[in-house]
Design goal:
Blueprint: H1 2-18, H2 22-36, E1 40-41, E2 44-48, E3 54-62, E4 74-83, H3 85-89, E5 95-101, E6 104-109, H4 125-130, H5 133-138, E7 147-159, E8 162-179, E9 182-193, E10 203-211, E11 220-230, H6 231-239, E12 245-256, E13 273-286, E14 298-307, E15 312-321, E16 326-334, E17 340-351, H7 352-362, E18 371-383, E19 388-396, E20 399-402, E21 410-412, E22 415-420, E23 423-433, E24 437-439, E25 445-447, E26 453-462, E27 467-476, H8 480-488, E28 497-511, E29 518-532, E30 539-549, E31 552-562, E32 565-578, E33 585-595, E34 598-599, H9 600-607, H10 615-619, H11 631-638, E35 641-653, E36 656-668, E37 671-681, E38 684-693, E39 699-710, E40 724-737, H12 741-746, E41 749-762, H13 766-772, E42 779-792, E43 795-804, E44 808-817, E45 821-830, E46 840-849, E47 854-861
Parallel strand pairs: 5-7, 6-7, 33-35, 34-35
Antiparallel strand pairs: 1-3, 2-3, 3-4, 4-5, 4-6, 7-8, 8-9, 9-10, 10-11, 11-12, 12-13, 13-14, 14-15, 15-16, 16-17, 17-18, 18-19, 18-20, 19-22, 20-21, 21-23, 22-23, 23-26, 24-25, 26-27, 27-28, 28-29, 29-30, 30-31, 31-32, 32-33, 35-36, 36-37, 37-38, 38-39, 39-40, 40-41, 41-42, 42-43, 43-44, ...
C-alpha cells in the first residue's frame, strides 16, 4: 500500500516536471490544436493525475481560421481539461470536461454567410455515417469534447472585419455533448453595448439542445429568456441611444427545427425553423415623470417560421395587447433580394381609455378628471422598413369624453376613415361641446345659461408626399371651452391671458414635407372678453376677425373696447425676429390702429394701482413686491415686437387735451416708443416723441414742441379768456421715473422755452400802474416775449419771462407748483427814449392759487452810495 502511495506521489511530481519541458509543452500544444482544430498558444502548463488526470493551460489563445480573419478565436485566463483514463489506457490523448475561466470568444460571420463556429464543434452522427470515405478524409479530425464549462466569459461578434458594438459579458454555464453531434446548452449572460452606459440590462438565458454547427444546428430545441431588464436599456442596446422611455421589459422565445415533433412545423419547407416570441413591457412612462398606477402595459406575441437559407420569415400570428385593446394579424419578411416587410392586422379593437393612459404617461399635467368611453375597430396593413401604413380602415360608433369644468361629457359622433392608395382620410365628424360650469361667490359651481356648440373635424394626408391637413369648423358660444379642453390635456395655451366669449370659424392645420406646419383659415370673435396680465380690466372684443395665411396672422378690429376707447384697425404679422437674448424667434407685428379717445385717468384705471399690486408689479419680477408666479405676465411684454401707425381722435392727460393725434408707435420687448407724434392743442399744433422703458423701475422721456397755441385755450389760463389774449410757441423736455401718479410727479424733471406773440392784457394798464404806483385801468400790449423754465421738485421754475414792447420791458420770475400755487415776482423797465433814471423800482408779486391769485405792488428804494 505504501508503495502505491509513493508511486502516485512520484507520478504526480514527475507530471509537474514533465509539462515544463520543451518537448512535452510542444506535445501538449499539438494535442490542444488537434482538439480545437486551430493554432493554440499557451504561456504555461500544469498537470495532475489524481484524483483524475487534468491538464491546466494558463493564458491560452486559440487562433482564428484564416477564412475569418487574423484575430484570435478564443482567449482564456485558464483552461482546465479533464483527461479520460480510457484514452490513456489505449495510448490516446482525449479531452473530457473543458472548463474555461475568463474566456473571450469572437464569433465571426464572413461574406459567404458562414460562421467561424461551424468548423469547431463535431458534426452530427447521422451526417458522419452518411458521408463517403473520401469526405471523411477531407474533413478535419473529430474532436472529442464532451463538456465545456464557462465562468465569467465574454462573447464578441464581427461581421467580416467590422466588430459589432453588441456583445455578451459575464457569461456563465455549460455546453455538454449528450450524444454524437448533439449538445445541450445552459448559458446565462448580460447583454452589453460599447460606448453606451447601461443600468439594468437584465439577464439573457439560453437553454435547450442543438446539433453541431456543421449541420447548421439542426435539429435544435432552444429556449431564450430575457428578464429583469429596463425598457431604457433595451432601446440603448438596440439603437445605442436613450429614447427617454422608462419601464420594465421581459421576453421569452422558443426556436425549434425538428419538423417531425412539433405541430406548428408540420408542412414546413426544408430548412424551416419554427419559433414563438412573447415580450412584455410594463410601467411605461417618460423619463422625467413619476410612475403611476395607470402607466401603460403592452404585450407582443408572435408565432411563425424562419428559413435562413431562403431569407424568409412567415408569422402566422401577431398579437399586440394592452389592458383594454388588442391588434391581431399576420406578417412576412423577405431579406435575400432586399428587405420586404409586411404586417396585416385583420382585427383591431382600441379603447380610447388606453389612449389616455399613454397620454398621461408622456404628457404631464393631464387632468385626472379626463375620462373617455369610445371604442375603435378596424384593419390595417403596414409595409416597408421602417414600417409605414399602406392600407387601413377604421370606424367608431361614437363616444363620450368627460372633461373637468363642463356640465356634461363631450359627445363624439360616429367616426369613419381609412387609407387607400397612400392617402389617409378621416371623414368629417361632429363633436358636441357642452356648456361650461362657472363658480359663484360662495365657491359652488353653477351652470352658465349659454348652450353648447358643435365642431366638425376631418383629416386628410398624402402619406407619400408627407403632406396633409386637419380641418376644424363650427360655432362655439364659449370659446373658452377649447382653451379648457387643451388645458385638461396638459397644454395650457393661456400664458398671461384668458379669453371668453362667442367664437366661430373655419381653420385648417396644414403640414408639408418641406417647411414648417401652419394654420390656414379664419376665426371670428363676437361679444368676447380678453383678460391680459397687467391690465385691471378685460378687453371687450365686440367684433374681431383673425386670419391665418402663409404661416402668418392678421387681426381685423371692427369694434374693440380697451383703455376706455373704441378701437378699429388691423394688426398683421410680417414675420419673425430674434429676441434680444437671441434664444428664440418671436412674431413681428405691423399695425394700423385708430381710437376715438384716450384719457390718462381711464388709463390709470386699466394699468394703475387700485389697492392691489400695480400692473408693472404684475408684469415684472418679484423684486417689485410681486411674486414669482406673476413672472409669466412679464413674458407677455418681453415677447412683443410691434410697430405701426396710431391715430387717436381725442387724448386727455390731466388738464391737457389734444385732438387728432397721429404717431408712429413701436413696442420692442419692454421699450415703448412714439415718434413723429402730431396733434392739435389749444388752437395750435404740437409734435414730439416719447420713450418708455418698462423695466423694474419704469423710465419715461418726452420731447415735444408746440406752435401757435392760444394762451387762453390752455387749461391753466382758460379762466382769463376775457382779460388775456396772445399765442405761444416753444419746446419742452421731460423725464420721470416711478409707478403711479404720485411717484411720476415727484420725480418729474425737465426744461423748456417759451416764445410769446401779440400778448394783450385787457382791463389793466400794467405799465402805467408800475410807473404811478397805483392801479390803472387800460390795456397792456406786448408784441413778443421769450422765456425759459425748469421743472423740478414738484413744480415749474420760471427762470425768466421777458415781455417786450416798443417802450417797455416786463420781466417775470418765480415758481408755480403742480397744484397751481404761484409765487411770482415781476418788474417793469422803460426802454428806448422812454428810459430814465429811477430813484425807486416797483415790483409786482403774485401768490396763491392761479384761479384767485393775490397781486400786490411793492416799492423798493434804490440804494444810495455809501449805504
Amino acid at each position: 500500500m505504501l508503495a502505491v502511495v509513493l508511486a502516485a506521489i512520484a507520478l504526480q511530481f514527475a507530471a509537474s516536471l514533465l509539462v515544463r519541458t520543451v518537448r512535452v509543452r510542444a506535445f501538449l500544444t499539438r494535442q490542444l490544436q488537434g482538439a480545437f482544430g486551430r493554432p493554440v498558444e499557451v504561456r504555461e502548463f500544469s498537470a495532475s493525475f489524481f484524483p483524475t488526470p487534468q491538464l491546466d493551460a494558463y493564458a491560452i489563445s486559440v487562433g482564428e481560421d484564416p477564412a475569418f480573419g487574423n484575430e484570435y478565436f478564443l482567449r482564456a485566463d485558464r483552461l482546465s481539461a479533464g483527461l479520460r483514463w480510457s484514452g490513456f489506457l489505449r495510448g490516446r490523448f482525449e479531452l473530457g470536461t473543458l472548463q474555461l475561466d475568463g474566456p473571450s470568444l469572437v464569433l465571426v460571420r464572413n461574406d459567404r454567410a458562414q460562421w467561424n463556429l461551424e468548423r469547431w464543434l463535431p458534426a452530427a452522427g447521422a451526417e458522419s455515417r452518411g458521408a463517403s470515405a473520401a469526405d471523411a478524409v477531407a474533413k478535419p479530425t473529430t474532436h472529442h469534447l464532451q463538456r465545456i464549462e464557462i465562468n465569467d466569459g465574454r462573447i464578441n461578434f464581427k461581421i467580416g472585419n467590422d466588430k459589432v458594438s453588441f456583445a455578451f459579458q459575464q457569461v456563465q454555464g455549460m455546453v455538454e455533448q449528450t450524444a454524437a453531434g448533439r449538445w445541450r446548452l445552459d448559458l446565462e449572460a448580460q447583454p452589453w453595448r460599447s460606448g453606451t452606459p447601461l443600468q439594468l440590462a437584465g439577464t439573457v438565458r439560453v437553454s435547450g439542445e442543438v446539433a453541431g454547427t456543421s449541420v447548421r444546428l439542426r435539429p435544435a430545441h432552444l429556449r431564450v429568456r430575457w428578464a429583469k431588464s429596463s425598457l431604457a436599456d433595451v432601446f440603448r442596446l438596440i439603437g445605442g441611444t436613450d429614447l427617454g422611455v422608462r419601464g420594465t421589459f421581459a421576453g421569452e422565445a422558443g426556436i425549434d427545427s425538428d419538423e417531425n415533433s412539433l405541430p406548428e412545423t408540420q408542412g414546413a419547407a426544408l430548412g424551416d425553423w419554427a419559433f414563438t416570441l412573447q415580450t412584455r413591457a410594463t410601467e411605461i412612462h417618460r423619463w422625467d415623470l413619476a410612475e403611476r398606477q395607470d402607466n401603460p402595459r403592452v404585450g407582443l406575441r408572435m408565432k411563425g417560421r424562419w428559413n435562413p437559407a431562403l431569407g424568409t420569415t412567415e408569422l402566422s400570428e401577431v398579437v399586440i395587447e394592452t389592458p383594454r385593446s388588442n391588434l391581431r394579424g399576420t406578417a412576412s419578411l423577405k431579406s435575400i433580394a432586399g428587405l420586404e416587410f409586411a404586417v396585416d392586422f385583420d382585427s383591431a379593437g382600441v379603447q380610447a381609455a388606453d389612449f389616455l393612459d399613454w397620454v398621461r404617461a408622456f404628457q404631464p399635467e393631464v387632468s385626472e378628471g379626463v375620462t373617455a368611453s369610445q371604442y375603435f375597430t378596424g384593419t390595417a396593413t403596414l409595409r416597408g422598413w421602417p414600417l409605414e401604413l399602406d392600407e387601413a380602415a377604421f370606424s367608431s360608433p361614437g363616444g363620450r369624453w368627460s372633461m373637468p369644468g363642463f356640465s356634461s361629457p363631450l359627445a363624439v359622433r360616429s367616426v369613419r376613415g381609412g387609407i387607400e392608395r397612400r392617402r389617409l382620410l378621416v371623414e368629417p365628424f361632429a363633436v358636441s361641446v357642452p356648456a361650461r360650469k362657472t363658480g359663484n361667490s360662495d365657491g359652488k359651481a353653477t351652470l352658465v345659461s349659454t348652450g353648447g356648440g358643435i365642431i366638425n373635424l376631418s383629416l386628410q394626408e398624402d402619406l407619400g408626399q408627407k403632406s396633409g391637413s386637419v380641418r376644424m369648423e363650427g360655432q362655439l358660444p364659449q370659446c373658452e371651452a377649447l382653451l379648457a379642453i387643451a388645458a385638461a390635456f396638459g397644454h395650457d395655451l393661456r400664458h398671461g391671458w384668458d379669453l371668453a366669449g362667442r367664437a366661430g370659424g373655419d381653420l385648417r392645420f396644414e403640414w408639408y414635407r418641406s417647411g414648417a406646419p401652419a394654420w390656414v383659415g379664419h376665426a371670428d370673435l363676437t361679444r368676447a372678453a380678453l383678460q391680459v396680465a397687467g391690465l385691471n380690466q378685460p378687453i371687450q372684443l365686440e367684433n374681431l376677425r383673425t386670419e391665418w395665411k402663409g404661416g402668418k396672422r392678421k387681426f381685423t378690429l371692427s369694434k374693440v373696447g380697451a383703455f376706455g376707447a373704441s378701437w378699429t384697425g388691423t394688426v398683421e404679422q410680417t414675420g419673425t425676429v430674434a429676441t434680444d437674448a437671441g434664444d428664440e424667434q418671436v412674431p413681428n407685428w405691423m399695425f394700423q390702429l385708430q381710437a376715438d379717445q384716450l384719457d390718462a385717468t381711464e388709463l390709470d384705471r386699466w394699468i394703475g394701482p387700485r389697492a392691489r399690486p400695480t400692473w408693472l408689479e404684475r408684469l415684472l419680477p418679484a423684486s417689485l413686491a410681486g411674486n414669482s408666479q406673476r413672472a409669466t405676465a412679464n413674458a407677455v411684454l418681453r415677447r412683443i415686437r410691434a410697430e405701426g401707425e396710431l391715430k387717436v381722435n381725442q387724448i386727455a392727460v390731466e388738464k391737457i387735451r389734444m385732438n387728432g393725434l397721429r404717431t408712429h408707435a413701436s413696442l420692442n420687448g419692454l421699450t415703448l416708443k412714439l415718434t413723429d407724434a402730431q396733434a392739435q392743442w389749444s388752437g395750435g399744433g404740437a409734435q414730439g416723441s416719447l420713450v418708455a422703458v418698462l423695466g423694474g423701475n419704469p423710465k419715461y422721456e418726452v420731447s415735444a414742441a408746440f406752435d401757435r397755441v392760444a394762451l387762453t385755450e390752455t387749461p391753466w389760463l382758460a379762466e382769463l379768456a376775457d382779460r388775456l389774449s396772445g399765442t405761444a410757441a416753444g419746446s419742452v423736455e421731460l423725464r420721470t421715473v416711478g409707478i403711479g401718479r404720485e411717484d411720476l410727479l415727484k420725480n418729474l424733471a425737465g426744461k423748456g422755452d417759451l416764445r410769446l406773440s401779440r400778448v394783450e392784457l385787457h382791463g389793466w394798464d400794467l405799465a402805467g400802474t408800475m410807473a404811478q404806483g397805483d392801479w390803472k385801468i387800460g390795456t397792456t400790449r406786448w408784441p413778443s416775449g421769450v422765456g425759459t423754465f425748469h421743472i423740478t421738485d414738484g413744480g415749474f421754475e420760471l427762470n425768466s419771462l421777458r415781455l417786450a414792447s416798443p417802450v417797455e420791458e416786463f420781466l417775470v420770475k418765480g415758481s408755480v407748483s403742480f397744484s397751481q400755487d404761484a409765487d411770482l415776482t415781476a418788474e417793469s423797465h422803460a426802454i428806448g427814449r422812454a428810459a430814465r433814471p429811477e430813484h425807486a423800482t416797483r415790483f409786482l408779486t403774485i401768490s396763491g392759487p392761479l384761479t384767485e391769485p393775490k397781486v400786490s405792488l411793492e416799492k423798493v428804494t434804490a440804494q444810495q452810495p455809501g449805504d
